Amino acid sequence: MEATPLPFLHAIQTLKHLPRTGWLRMFDNNAESVESVAEHSFRVAILAMLAPENLNLDVGKCTEMALVHDLAESVIGDIPTWAKVPKERKYEMEHNGFQYLHNLLQTYSPKTATKISELWLEYEQGKTPEAKWVKEMDKFECLVQAHEYEQKTFGKKDFGEFQGQLKHIHSKEAKKWAESLSREREDHFAKREKRLPIIFITGDPVACDNIASRVSGELSLPHISMNKTLHEKAQDLEYRHHGIIKNCLDKRIEVPASLVVEVLENEIKAIGGRSWGIVSGFPNDTEQLAEFETKVQDCNCILQVEFPPRTNDQRQESSELEDGKSTWRPPKVPFKDVLKSSAAHFKVVGSITDQLTTSEMDLCHLAVNSIKAFITDGRFPEHSKSAS
């Protein structure tokens, strides 16, 4: 039989589905909610590639070491710290697992099999500069993931215990990264303690802008049009992402959700956030909404504007802005929340109402009255408190 790497590949595929057990108890043992060992190793490898040049490391070696450092877990599983397996015993188990993987790969490439085993051994011993850096990145990646879970769970779960990984960060360069992450974490929890009084108007782009402009004028509320703002950013040569946004708008490619949210958050900060504000043209889809909920705040107020299906000519005409650029794009995942009656305009995202078929003029009038009543009533959804 011809020697191939297939037996080795089949063995390590387990890592793509093997959950990192340290996170499981934070998510009630729901494996679908946590990262896999392969996902962790992938980002450790990226971090290895990002090693500062002044360290004079063999970056290629660091990257390869990061990719293989947890391969043995495809055989023995991910042994959590709380299992209290003695360090010597764990090493024996991992060494045995690597020997098995070595044997699977040896028939195809003895040289590569030996290289992988040697990289793992060098990592375990942790004596070379490359091994020390990868070990630090293994811990730093855990810190980053912990913070991302804090964002994902809106501060409802306490991941503070994972900050203990900081004690394994020793180099000046890695400490600088960790300090930056800590500041980001503090800023995030500070935002969670505040509530941005924002009402999103989403749906048909031009109709949303028209409604928002009228609401803004009649109620003296600041208005942010995401269509207009993104076009302004595309023309702002001093803005670092202007080229990306311009290319997306010109070629009708979705602007990355994370970038849209970054732009929006900065615009919201600019209007002060002390009184109610209107944002039109956001979110376009659930990806943008999820990004905003994760990075800024959850439980938001949204007015969904939906009209009966239009002809292609009407759709094209309504998608033209002042600068002649078309921004009409079908949403990836259309919302089901639509305008029905005064009592159902504002819900925590996720409510479902029936479609209302009416003219834009009537819709504007209804929206103005409803937003006025909503703000006067002060009905603002509860949001998550930080668990930090």
UniProtKB/TrEMBL annotation:
Origin superkingdom: Eukaryota
GO terms of molecular function: 5'-deoxynucleotidase activity; metal ion binding
Function: Catalyzes the dephosphorylation of the nucleoside 5'-monophosphates deoxyadenosine monophosphate (dAMP), deoxycytidine monophosphate (dCMP), deoxyguanosine monophosphate (dGMP) and deoxythymidine monophosphate (dTMP).
Family: Belongs to the HDDC2 family.
Domain HD/PDEase residue range list: 33-152
Reactions catalysed, as given in the entry: a 2'-deoxyribonucleoside 5'-phosphate + H2O = a 2'-deoxyribonucleoside + phosphate
Pfam family, one: HD_3
GO terms for cellular component: cytoplasm
Record protein name field: 5'-deoxynucleotidase
Keyword Heme (UniProt): no
Residues that span the membrane, as ranges: none
Named cofactor requirement(s): Co(2+); Mn(2+)
Keywords noted in UniProt: Hydrolase, Metal-binding
EC numbers on record: 3.1.3.89
UniProt cross-references to InterPro entries, sorted A to Z: HD/PDEase_dom (IPR003607), HD_domain (IPR006674), P-loop_NTPase (IPR027417), YfbR/HDDC2 (IPR039356)
Organism of this sequence: Penicillium desertorum
Subunit structure: Homodimer.
Matching SMART domains: HDc
Class of the enzyme per the UniProt entry, highest EC level: hydrolase
Coiled coil: none
